[in-house]
Amino acid sequence: MSEPRSPGAGAARESVHLHVYDSETQWTWGAAVSISSSLGRSLQERPRARLLLSGGTTPAAVYAALSKAPLEWERIDVALVDERWLMPDDPDSNARLVRESLLQRNAAGARFETLTRAGRSIEEAVATANMHARQPADVVVLGMGEDGHTASLFPRMRDLDRALASSAPYVATDASGCSGAGNWLRRISLTPAGLRPAHTRLLLIRGAKKRELLDRVLAGDDAHEYPARIAFTTPGAPLHVHWCP
Ligand SMILES: O=C1O[C@H](COP(=O)(O)O)[C@@H](O)[C@H](O)[C@H]1O
Q1: Is ipTM strictly over 0.95?
Q2: How many angstroms separate the CA atoms of 169 and 154, rounded?
Q3: Which among 43, 202, 218, 238 is least buried, having the fewest CB atoms inside 10 angstroms?
Q4: pTM of the model
């Protein structure tokens, strides 16, 4: 890892643990076992555990592996790190991805909170998400786009400042002007304030491009350049990065 630019930033990077796997299969099972172990520990300590999941193209195999974990899934609340302003059954929604990959097999009995719901405005959806977020997350699974975004916090996004500085766990975002957001500009996203209380943080990434990007992300601390930096600059739990080629 690069030399820290300040004692504070260095301390944050020291709390990043990189788990490297040789193959996608090992990565899938390594990450799934890590999430499952954390949830199991939480269930020993509390009546319910809370799991926040990202969407995108990376995590489906891990979620499918996790769905086979022998956990008391009826005691687990599954919610989303972020969502495109789409209904939960839309094929491009993160909710649909989680439902089809995780909420199957042993995990079919988990309680699932979507961020969007028919007939609900985006402001109402954010208010409901913030109410649910009063229960701190046990495990947060983050992703990172090739532009360095995480959740729905995109570089140069119009209201990135507001989202990064927000004291609310979730905000509505407008990703206009950020090509990484694709056709989905209106979104709901976890903020650093929402990430902070989580007991366990994971970042799931694959491929050479994202490994190079990770090095650049870890070499600085400005979340405006790479919002994915909130994963390790936000005070709280260490970050476990799971990567395979
Ligand atoms: O838009 C999103 O992208 C990120 C990263 O996705 P990936 O396809 O590069 O893995 C994801 O973490 C986020 O939940 C999603 O809404």
Answers
A1: yes
A2: 17
A3: 238
A4: 0.96
